[in-house]
Design a protein that fits this description.
This protein is of the alpha/beta class. 26% of the residues lie in helices and 26% in strands. The chain contains 21 helices and 51 strands. Strands 1-2-3-13-16-17-18-19 form an 8-stranded parallel barrel, surrounded by 5 helices. The protein is globular, with a radius of gyration of 30 Å.
């Protein structure tokens, strides 16, 4: 398998030479806290700025950039996209991508962003994956598909090519009307089939477009291999960059496309290196693209045998994005033949990944380097190496989601029965951040909190918790998904493609800066530190390619080892840290004193996560690792076979002998059984304690909702991020920090909400109770600085019946509608969710609740808990503002504000915008995002109980 050496060398060259712009100098010491208090724009979140339909004009560009700047946004990713379906254009025409008019708008945007001190990234093309209406036919993507149909023996068959082509016409997101199809092969096999030699070529039975065939007695299957050219179109492409998908396996076509873009823009704007931070490429969802003209020849050269006779048997029935609809497809296969087919499937996927890496990834990175513009990409999708593809990018990117079609309840659940549920981060993010760690990169961006389902009902609290969860997976910079270009003339709700309705017409827009300040402060720490990861995890991805073929990241339809991501989660929740590695990384790592060393990383422990197939060269390196003191834990099974077809039996024998030699180190080459109850957190706690696995901090009672990651700055400040991923309950744990962390140092709680920091109590043996409340995160920093204020958390009224639950003589309400602008008043005797009232169920805006309370002498409370609030609240007591609460418990310190006798309370609640949009029954935006999604009305207003204590 010559590939492994070639891929590593090309990746290394890319990672060393692709950086086009000097990186910002890392900061440390006291400057780190100074930066935390008032983070530079480089740390501030960006937005994906959708230029809807490229209907952009100068006046609106300025208005929107100024809005974003005022809201605390540091930069924009300029992202032309298709105009939202069925939405009124208000008569504004589109500008074609790369037309003189479009480039003039781009130049104007660069100038305005520079005036405002904002940064620009620019997407390549439009939508995903990129392409154009004007691509020549020989530069368009192709796909090879198999149609398998069982036929009865002893019958006469007549079948048209039209029927075959129609049956397997690719189920793509956007159909390409220019697609053509070609019959590549036709075979008849017995069912079951036990050997490739049993397949009979029936191509000569076609007379023109009609197949006529007398089927022999017995069960048989017909296989038809069909190539579709120009098979799919760009998803959400804007005018000029829609149409056919580019062939990403054609280096010449890729470079031509990229040069065409830069050559059109730079004569007008000047060098893009002076205008852009990075070129961006959205996720590589190539819709199943798996073929190019020289694929068969490249396969033969790399793998050493002919592909086409085997190819029909390696394929499954597929649908949209190339996702498998049925793994049980075609004839039944005898045991040995099935084994051989699986091995060919691996070789096919490997060849495809190599070609994409060499011809697309390397070409794109070289172009960025020549343009002296950084590269930023979601370097995954379908067919790419999930980790290696991110190694060469200056800014590798992952993605987090508010939810998706599986309705994952973020903030409500965090079980092990489904690795996706309750998580905002996707399965790909740990691969992306691991690639960054392996190459020493600290900026790891994310398409943050992608929103296609909860567009108008997502709160700032929800976005903050989700993005903090993502930070524990290694993401250090947020790119909000996304800000829609929408002029005032578009009215409400305006032009909405996707996103959490980042719009000045949203009720929470005046508070959006609070979220951006939080994220900027977080990033100012995390981008100046390295995540501590001393455990390496090898997933069984090569087995997946063998058995199932590649899957679509970050949402695979099915995984061969569904619990893979639960392992790194469990390690982190138990106070440790882990990275993914791959066969390439292991092979090219250097073993030093029982450590696997690659780039800046050193791992003394390696987990093989249900890995069955591998290469003898990988086990050679693992044997060297174990022999010198490293430890390997095989979950579920030992490696037992080789990968790929050529000489497989000989290589299997070699692997069996290698594994037997490794078993001679029973304390360093260990087989672990999977947990019988499927609870991987508790299982890992036992494994860690039994085997003394590394972990910086000891978490005495790990909690599923309490996420943890550890970072170290250049001047050895230890940073621990604890995130409570539960929106309604406190999660706490006793943790013990080692002397190396706390000795001679102060433990600080850095508050990203205010920019302040507070001294935390810690015992002499390093013990501390970490207890973030609902939706809270603790950022704990250990350094040698002294002084400062002691942390005094707001006490929670935990005793049933304690305190005074307010039941005043009613509440006076003043409601101001965000969109309609009117103000109305009302009286409410008992606090009630506004969505449950007939009059106010569709209200969205600010509602102020006022009341008067009488306090007796000698009984002056110090705190107030507003109870349940939907959504953001502020409080005034006797006319004194007490601040804004936008996440977590709504508790206020009232020290010195209340007095004997009469006191006035004013609680202003800003509700979510979605309830108002629920009244827009015929609006296409409301139909798309609310009614077709069965979106509920959201809790609205002050619900209480309001308690003084």
């Amino acid at each position: 398998m010559r590939f492994f050496r070639l891929l590593f060398l090309s990746s290394l060259m890319i990672s060393l030479f692709t950086v086009a712009l000097p990186a910002a100098q890392p900061i440390s010491g006291k400057e780190l806290y100074t930066q935390f208090r008032n983070a530079d724009d480089r740390y501030r979140p960006f937005v994906r700025w959708w230029w809807n339909g490229d209907k952009v004009r100068k006046e609106e560009i300025t208005r929107e950039l100024e809005l974003l700047k005022a809201a605390g946004i540091g930069g924009v990713e300029i992202n032309p996209i298709e105009f939202p379906a069925k939405v009124d254009t208000t008569g504004i025409g589109s500008l074609e991508w790369l037309s003189p008019e479009w480039i003039e708008m781009l130049k104007y945007t660069f100038d305005e962003a520079s005036r405002l001190g904002m940064t620009c990234d620019l997407i390549v093309g439009s939508g995903w994956p990129f392409g154009s209406e004007k691509l020549p036919r020989d530069e368009r993507a192709s796909v090879m598909l198999t149609y398998a149909v069982e036929v009865d023996g002893g019958t006469d068959i007549e079948m048209s090519k039209f029927h075959i082509f129609k049956t397997i016409d690719p189920g793509v997101s956007v159909v390409n009307e220019r697609r053509t199809c070609e019959m590549v092969s036709a075979l008849m096999t017995p069912n079951p089939i036990n050997d490739l030699g049993e397949a009979v070529d029936i191509m000569d039975r076609f007379d023109g477009d009609i197949l006529t065939l007398k089927v022999p007695e017995g069960r048989h299957v017909l296989y038809f291999m069909v190539r579709f050219d120009s098979f799919a179109s760009v998803i959400n492409g804007a005018p000029g960059a829609a149409g056919s998908i580019l062939n990403h396996m054609d280096a010449r076509a890729v470079r031509k496309y990229l040069d065409h873009m830069s050559d059109a823009i730079e004569p007008v704007t000047g060098p893009l290196s002076e205008r852009l931070r990075a070129f961006f490429v959205d996720s590589m969802e190539l819709e199943g693209n798996n073929w190019t003209d020289d694929f068969a020849a490249e396969f033969r050269r790399r793998r050493g045998y002919e592909l086409l006779p085997w190819l029909p048997f390696t394929m499954f029935k597929v649908g949209r994005l190339g996702d498998v609809e049925s793994f049980e497809y075609g004839a039944e296969k005898g045991e040995k033949f099935a084994e051989e087919v699986n091995r060919v499937r691996f070789d096919f996927e490997l060849t495809k990944a190599e070609l994409l890496h060499e011809r697309y990834t390397a070409t794109f990175l070289e172009w960025c380097r020549e343009k002296r513009v950084k590269s930023r990409a979601q370097a995954y999708g379908r067919g790419f190496f999930p980790l290696e593809s991110s190694l060469g990018y200056d800014i590798p990117e992952g993605e987090s989601w508010t939810t998706n079609w599986l309705r994952h309840r973020i903030g409500e659940e965090m079980g092990d029965e489904d690795y996706r549920r309750g998580r905002s981060y996707t399965m790909i993010n740990k691969y992306v951040s691991s690639a960054a760690h392996l190459t020493g990169k600290r900026i790891v961006s994310a398409e943050e909190m992608t929103n296609t389902y909860k567009v108008f009902i997502t709160s700032l609290e929800f976005l903050r918790v989700g993005s903090d969860m993502n930070a524990t997976a290694g993401i250090t910079h947020s790119v909000w998904h996304g800000f829609n270009y929408s002029p005032r003339s578009a009215g409400f709700p305006g032009w909405v493609q996707y996103g959490s309705y980042y719009n000045d017409q949203n009720t929470w827009w005046p508070y959006f800066r609070l979220l951006n300040d939080w994220r900027a402060r977080m990033s100012s720490i995390l981008q100046n530190a390295d995540m501590v990861t001393d455990i390496a995890l090898l997933p069984a991805n090569m087995d997946m390619w063998t058995e199932m073929g590649v899957q679509t990241e970050p949402f695979p339809v099915k995984l061969n080892v569904p619990y893979t991501s639960l392992i790194w989660e469990a390690i982190h929740k138990n106070g440790g840290g882990a990275d993914y590695v791959t066969e390439n990384i292991i092979r090219d790592a250097e073993v030093k004193n029982g450590k696997l060393c690659y780039g800046p990383k050193q791992y003394g422990t390696l987990f093989l996560i249900d890995v069955g197939g591998t290469f003898p060269e990988i086990l050679d390196k693992i044997e060297e690792f174990v022999r010198t003191g490293g430890r390997v834990f095989c979950i579920g099974k030992y490696p037992c076979k080789s990968l790929g077809l050529k000489d497989w039996e000989e290589r299997d024998t070699r692997i069996a002998a290698q594994v037997e030699r490794l078993k001679a180190y029973p304390d360093r080459f260990v087989l672990l059984e999977r947990p019988s109850d499927g609870k991987y957190l508790e299982w890992y706690t036992e494994v860690m304690n039994k085997w003394g696995l590394p972990h910086t901090v000891t978490v005495e009672n790990p909690d599923r909702f309490l996420l943890q990651s550890h970072f170290v700055t250049d001047d050895c400040q230890d940073v621990f991020l604890f995130v409570n991923a539960n929106l309604s309950e406190e999660r706490s744990s006793e943790v013990v920090f080692p002397k190396s962390v706390f000795s001679g140092k102060t433990a600080w709680l850095y508050d990203p909400a205010s920019g302040e920091r507070y001294r935390l109590p810690i015992s002499r043996d390093g013990r501390m109770k970490v207890a973030p409340g609902p939706a809270e995160s603790w950022l704990i920093v250990f350094n040698r600085e002294k002084g400062g204020k002691e942390w005094r958390p707001l006490p929670v009224n935990r005793t049933e019946g304690a305190g005074n639950s307010l039941s005043p003589r009613g509440w006076r309400l003043s409601l101001t509608h965000k969109i309609l602008g009117w103000t109305k008043t009302a009286q409410m005797d008992t606090l009630t969710d506004l969505k449950d009232t007939e009059q106010w169920r569709n209200f969205s805006g600010d509602v102020t609740y006022s009341t008067t309370i009488i306090l007796p002498e000698g009984n002056i409370p110090s705190f107030i808990d507003l109870g349940k609030v939907g959504d953001i609240c502020s409080l005034k007591v006797n006319g004194t503002p007490c601040g804004v609460k936008w996440f977590g418990r709504r508790i206020y310190d009232l020290s010195g504000l209340l007095h004997e006798g009469e006191n006035t309370l004013e609680v202003t609640v800003t509700t979510l915008i979605g309830n108002y949009l629920q009244s827009f029954k015929d609006d296409p935006v409301a139909q798309r995002f609310l009614f077709r999604r069965n979106a509920p009305l959201t809790p609205s207003g002050l619900m209480g109980p309001v308690t003084l204590y």
